[in-house]
Amino acid sequence: MKKIDQICIIDDDPTHLFITKKYVELSGLVNNIVVYKDGKEAYDSLKAIIVASQKLPEIILLDLNMPIWDGWQFLEEFLKIPIQAKIHIFILTSSVSAEDKIRAEQFNLNGKYLVKPITFGEIKTIFSEL
Amino acid sequence: MTYPDIPSNENERLQELRSYNIMGELENSDYDFLTKMAAEICGTKISLISILNEDKQWFLSHHGIDTKETPKEIAFCAHAINKPKELFIIEDATKDKRFFDNPLVTGSSQVVFYAGMPLVTKKGYPLGTLCVIDDEPKTLNKNQIDSLKLLSTQVMKLLELHRKTITLKKQNNSLKKITELFKESQRINHVGTWELDLSTNETIWTDEVYSIYELPLDYNHNKSKAIDFYHPDDRQKILDAIAHTLKTEQPFDLTCRFISAKNSHKWVRSAGRVWKEKNQANKLIGIFQDITDQKNIEDQLRISEEAFRGSFEHGAIGMALLNEKGKWFKVNKKLCEILGYSEQELMNLTVADITHPEDTSSELHLIKQLVQGKLDNYTLEKRYIHKNGNMIHIILAVSTVKNKAGKIQYFVTQIVDITTTKQFEIQLANTLANTQAILDANTQVAIIGTDLDGKINLFNRGAEQMLGYTSTEVIGKYEPQVFHLEDELKAFYSDKGTEGENEIDNDDQFKEKVEIDLHETNEWTYVRKDKSTLSVLLSVTSIKHQGKVTGYLGVAADITETKKVERETAELLEIAELQNDRLKNFAYIVSHNLRSHSGGISSLIELTESEHPDFGTTEIFEYLKKSSQNLSETIKHLTEVVQINLSDKEKLQLVALKPVIENNINSLLLQAKNANVTIYNEIEESIKVKAIPAYLDSIVMNFMTNAIKYSSTERESFLKIQAQKNKSYIILKFIDNGLGINLEKHGQKLFGMYKTFHNHADSRGIGLFITKNQIEAMRGKIEVESELNVGTTFKIYFEYEEN
């Protein structure tokens, strides 16, 4: 199985951040984990990386409910940036509302909507399928 | 002295005497000649013709004496007539016991000798005597007696002649009179008479004939000349008639055209017959009459009669001639049409038969007045009954035709069917009554009408109550703008910005407005008489009559209450919306934040378990783990519930029931088998319900799971799933023979949150609660029937769509 070089977790909740990080580490399939506390911080940082033509993460795990910029704002702005590399964005949220699921589909993220708490099995499945 | 006996037939005798009319007649030489002869023959000094009436004898002729009469009781003649056929002779009265003391004997007359022969009529009545008298006793010889009898016969002949002359005179007079009358009548009637001598063809005319011919009286005429004045076409006709009469002796009577000498065109009547006279040639006699006037009248009469018949037969109104008893005499087509009978059927009925029972007596007094001549005619409205039983309203006009004696020959009736008009009238009356009732009944709605000038002409009770004015106060006096706030009117018109701002102050603004904005409905503030105000919804329309606007009608409803309710509703809605928002927030907190936290906890416990296996086996950790699971579970259910209530109810779509059931059976196949439950899908292919597919799926799954879960181990378990259609719902039934529920005990709480009714390993109460909420979210309902240890039937009602 090919190892993933870098994964990005965007989440403001330290508990979940801890859990997600823990599972990712436990999977043993990822080399680096980058963490941003809100959508705005993530956008700015990732944009800087793009501008600097540095290496982008292969996977982004995005929480929706966050301060400053929420997950939707991030998506809207981030997807406007033209990039070559293929980035797999997953929504990782505690919201089970149909409204959010439909909205995710509008960003072409169907099948990429994960509900917290994520299980270790799920993490492993996602990574292995990539 | 002996008085003379009165003859037994004295009355008849006197009557006979009067017919001779001789009493008091002037002396006549014919009679005197006869008395003179009698005296000379008998050698007496005196001879008399004595006529006896009631009380005296009167001398028609007296020879040798001047006395004209004597009383009857001393008359010798009165004795003489008692033996009419015999000569009565007293030779010496002085020696006769009947006469010796008679004054005529004893007095200056010195009657001694008397011989009298009765004058007897053909009928045998003695009128008197021819007598001879002398003052010396005498005897008559046979010769003398015979002569005296002869002379008396002669007297009688003279008397007869006298009587005949009188009769003839009378007859002559009356004949004269008749002739005069005849002439006069000919003149008046334009009738003349003529004679035709058949041997000579000469003609004799009366004056009137000349007059008709318009010829002078000295005109020389004959048969052929007479014929020449007839109209050329009629000449042969009269000649033929004459020939026929001569041949058959049957009279003729003709009406011919005639052209007089003065070229007057006339109609004449000529009638004639054969006249036979003894020893003379036969004649034709006849009358000749100018009948031009009569003929003209006849023609006119015929024309007017034909005109009457025409208008009777083909009249646009019903007509009939009736006798006094109401029996038809003649009826026209239109009347038959009105009544629906054939002429024959109608002729067999009387007026009473076709008259509405309530109207039969309505015209009796009128008919009476007609009969009595107090009325010439009358007209009235009444009801007839059509052959088909329908009521017909008619106007009846009746007059009479009388004969010359003034007796009514027949009644002329004219009948106009006004049923349609009448129905219209009734309808109109009803409509008017209804309209009035509507106006009166509407106490909550003000109805105000105006004329074209804007003056109020209608103000109903509702308007009175609403505005505090009485209708008499405002009608014809005010215009509706007195009920409005000036500011509102101004604002209204400036908004409209219609024909110009200068109209705002125009008195006719209300009217102007209406003309521009017909059928407009707006909210206005009305000002009552007491200056208080109310909100109304006012609709203004124009009243049109035959396409022309004749006025305006405003209908105003008091909406003060409605406004208040509206405000309150808005306030409540606002509160509800706020609460809904809060609920949404709460739902969000539950679904997102709480889940997030509990998820964190459960993940952390999982991690702890894997990283610290020792701690994971402790009792305290077990409880922590269980609590965390319960928390997650609870949050999950709450989220579901909240989402049901917030979901959009309009997302219902038609879903076929059978496949949904089938899918669920398949996914529960294993569980069912394990629990030994047989599931029967008995739903018809065609049944579709209105549902949210996800909910329907969840509901079906829930009931199936329940049935499997709560099946009885004591018997062959089954679950039958059926569907049935009623007027408003499709009822989905889940029928099992499982453990059953004690409804008496748990019925109230069956669909409550967190209720379980079985001590079953997997029991959890959230299922029915969610199910119920989902069903209700789809505008359905749920019912349950159950008996412990027998089974349970759930009925779920879904809406469906009619074809």
Features:
heterodimer, A: 130 residues, alpha/beta, Rossmann fold, 5-stranded parallel sheet, 42% helix, B: 803 residues, Beta-Lactamase, 6 domains, 6-stranded antiparallel sheet, 25% strand, rod-shaped
Radius of gyration of chain B: 70 Å
In CATH, the topology of chain A is named Rossmann fold
Q: Which assembly state applies to the chains in this document?
A: heterodimer
Estimated radius of gyration of chain A: 14 Å
Whole-number mean pLDDT of chain A? 86
Q: Estimate the helix proportion of chain A, in percent.
A: 40-55%
Shape of chain A: globular
Binned, the helix content of chain B reads: 40-55%
Structural class of chain B: alpha+beta
- Which series of helices and strands of chain A comes N to C? EHEHEHEHEH
Which sequence of strands runs across the widest sheet of chain A? 2-1-3-4-5
Q: Give a quick account of the main beta sheet of chain A: strands, pairing sense, barrel closure.
A: 5 strands, parallel
Write down the CATH class of chain A: Alpha Beta
Q: Any idea of the CATH class of the largest domain in chain B? A: Alpha Beta
CATH homolog superfamily of chain A: Response regulator
User: What structural category characterises the helix and strand content of chain A?
Assistant: alpha/beta
